[in-house]
Amino acid sequence: MKKIFTNLTFWVLLAITSGALLGHFYPSIGVAMQPAGTYFINVVKIFINPIIFLTISLGISGMNDLKKVGRVGGKAILYFEIVTTLALLIGILVAHFIQPGAGVNTSAVQGGDISKFTTGAKSFSWLKFFKDNLTIQVLLFSIVAGIIISKLKAKEKIIEPLKTISTYVFKGLHIVMLFAPIGAFGGMAFTIGKYGIATLLPLGKLMLTVYVTMIIFVFVVLGLIMNYYKISIFKFLNYIKEELLIVLGTSSSEAALPSLMEKLEKMGCAKPVVGLVVPAGYSFNLDGTTIYLSMAVLFLAQVFKVDLTFEQVLTTIGILMITSKGAAGVTGSGFIVLASTLSAINVIPIEGLALLLGVDRFMSEARAITNFIGNGVATVFLSNQEKAFDRKRMEVAFLKEEYEYEVI
Hints:
Blueprint: H1 2-5, H2 8-25, H3 27-32, H4 34-61, H5 67-98, H6 115-123, H7 126-132, H8 134-151, H9 156-177, H10 180-195, H11 204-227, H12 233-239, H13 241-250, H14 257-266, H15 271-284, H16 287-303, H17 310-323, H18 333-345, H19 353-385, H20 391-407
């Protein structure tokens, strides 16, 4: 019994449940809890870039073969493109056959102001994306720093202090993560209090379709990718369950990103691979976001009874294959990408975005969790590809998690 009260998973789950109940029965108080979720995410964000820098620079500086860095990077980009394109096609196919937008009464759905997204769509560019995306900038800087350090004769004089700093940074992260239940409570209380369960009903079919599609993607597509190296997707999800609950409660994959990087290393993934793949994947391997964007386009076409031709569907796929990669790092960029896609197709009323604003927050959890799992799977897969994966460490990590689960 004592074990359950010292288990972070238990407290995060309790916090999510309590936050949902508070938001439902006392909406105004629930909305007032927003700072608890926001502040927690902001504090965790402080750790993201230092951890990326330390992980990559230490990993690369300790490598004898620098060609491996370029090889891992190239494989990661290829992997991201293949898997996100597959996610895009799955979203298109499911939305086509289930028709979540058929019969939706637009007058019954409360819309919202989309002007900031349509304005942003006109000014969105890859240059702006890279300029505003600090994670990518830190990733590139860390790679260069790691290469420079590896070439120095007295590199140990730099590496040892960095290792010491890394130890303290992770200790600080562990302390912050103890407050995860407070962040999850605030995030869930705010979401339910502000938007309410009732807002889900008019677009319930879309919600259900998105969640079911992402579940299929995780357990079938990502499950098969893990199975290629004889690794169970179920054991992996159990291993990162605390992080998944934090993402669920806060609707932000950033909230658990540093912790994921640490856990991937503990389960046997090489430090350089973790350092390269996870930060890059955060910006370019957005499986959940890609599924949502593709389904949203077809949903709006069905709502407004726009019968897309095969050529228009192909155009949509082509546009989203490029623009979906930029749906991270910039606030509201998911909607901006969607607005720019609708503008490019020019057959679906862009005003339809207002229909999605009310339920977008409830679907953001599914997007964030799918993105999060996808990046974890990508790291494990690429570590195995590079023969930089320790299966014994994985087995120990999985057994420890199963033991704790049984005790609870």
